[in-house]
Amino acid sequence: MHCLDCRTAGTNSPTVGVCQGCGAGVCATHARIAPRSVRRDSLIGIPGEAEARTVLCPVCAAAEAPAAAVLAP
Ligand SMILES: [Zn+2]
Ligand SMILES: [Zn+2]
Question: What pLDDT does 73 receive?
Answer without folding.
Answer: 63
